[in-house]
């Protein structure tokens, strides 16, 4: 089964280049292109892609607001921020809006393909620079709900970049059970995404900061 990808970028040459390159990977299928945030939201609703490659600086509705809307309406669709800008406000805004990752456009093509596949599997994808900035800006919750021993185990593995399937295999659990644990963790920590949960895991001292940079 191919991974359905929607590209959102206000530069047509970027969209065309991404479509051509991603089209070379048999595991990926570009199902649409959006030139701004409004189009990205409409097309995501219509096409329900597995992953949206989202530029953040676009006219009209920007990528951060579009990410928030898409993640709120389509929880099964992951948003991967792909931008040439590394600004604290954008990094933090994208993650708080629900983006599963933040990557810069200077990464290699094969790295982007791998990042899309990992994002579709629920793995956090952050460039080292973005991870560093997020650690400076995102604070651990002051009064997080108490996690059970098993929830702590799941959170540690999530923060290390493992997908639900990989966590299930590691802990000898069913994948649906892991999904339930992840949902409970997000509620107890008061966060909206796996990325935020991973950041808090570092803040809580459960995993080292290096775990957040998923360039593997």
Helical proportion?
Answer: 40-55%
Count up the helices.
10
**What's the arrangement of strands in the largest beta sheet?**
2-1-3-4-5-6
Global geometry: globular
Using the 3D structure, state the CATH architecture of the largest domain.
Answer: 3-Layer(aba) Sandwich
Question: For the CA atoms, what is the radius of gyration?
Answer: 16 Å
Total strands: the figure is: 6
The parts where pLDDT drops under 50 for at least 5 residues are none
Average pLDDT works out at 86
CATH topology of the largest domain, what is it called?
A: Rossmann fold
CATH fourth-tier homologous superfamily of the largest domain? Response regulator
Please report which band the strand proportion falls in: under 5%, 5-15%, 15-25%, 25-35%, 35-45% or over 45%: 5-15%
Q: What's the end-to-end separation, in Å?
A: 23 Å
Succession of helices and strands:
EHEHEHEHEHEHHHHH
Total domain modules = 2
The CATH class name of the largest domain reads Alpha Beta
Largest sheet: 6 strands, parallel
Structural class: alpha/beta
Task: Describe what this molecule looks like in 3D.
The chain has 216 residues and is an alpha/beta fold. The protein has 2 domains: 3-123, Rossmann fold (3-Layer(aba) Sandwich), CATH 3.40.50; 142-212, Arc Repressor Mutant, subunit A, CATH 1.10.10. It has 10 helices and 6 strands; from the N terminus they run βαβαβαβαβαβααααα. It has a 6-stranded parallel beta sheet, with helices on both faces. The longest helix has 15 residues, at 175-189. The mean pLDDT is 86.
